């Protein structure tokens, strides 16, 4: 989760794209922050690293999997 606090009365919640909380989304949040808004962008993927744009097909496939399958896939990826 990305949190930028400017101690203002306005909070903007930024929802990332299918790729996750990547550099582009961080820059979008920083842009709002520079305009003196508080910003939160939760990581909705449950992955520590976002998908690269070249992994678009994988991102869409994993989005459709049930949570239990995603957890199993993470365990497989961690052991390979």
UniProtKB/TrEMBL annotation:
Pfam families: DLH. InterPro entries: AB_hydrolase_fold, Dienelactn_hydro. The keyword Hydrolase applies. GO terms for molecular function: hydrolase activity. It comes from the Bacteria. Keywords: Hydrolase. The keyword Hydrolase applies. Residues 11-57 form the Dienelactone hydrolase domain. This is Dienelactone hydrolase family protein.
